[in-house]
Design goal:
Blueprint lengths: L4 E6 L3 H16 L5 E6 L2 H10 L4 E4 L8 H11 L5 E5 L7 H10 L4 E4 L4 H12 L6
Parallel strand pairs: 1-2, 1-3, 3-4, 4-5
Helix pairs in contact: 2-3
Amino acid sequence: MTRPFTILVVDDSPRIREMFVDWFSTAKKMKIVDIEIMEAINGVDALEKIAVKMPNLVITDIMMPLMNGYQLIEKLRMLYEKLPIIIITGIDGDVPQKELTEMGERYRIDWIFRKPLSMTSVFTKIKSLLAMPAIR
């Protein structure tokens, strides 16, 4: 059996982290994807976790204590230029799409999702970024 892909979910909300754990546990049981989830509560915690085990992809919130998502992404881009990064944001829906697009280009983000999240959309994008085959 192949090793699972590893995704680091960085969010100060336990509810959001638990949601990802639940989604991917369910998807693994249904043989949709084989993903291991690592969790971090902020950018500092994320860098510590990455030093121990390198993920295949990082999903990060923006607004977090100690080290926010922007600061984390800047550090990740200096250290791991090609590491896929997805932003999940609760930024007000009134923020124009153009501003989110500019933010993505500036930080070389692979994708940006607004909260609340759709499991189907997130799975589709992750599978695309990681070129994941279906589990057999």
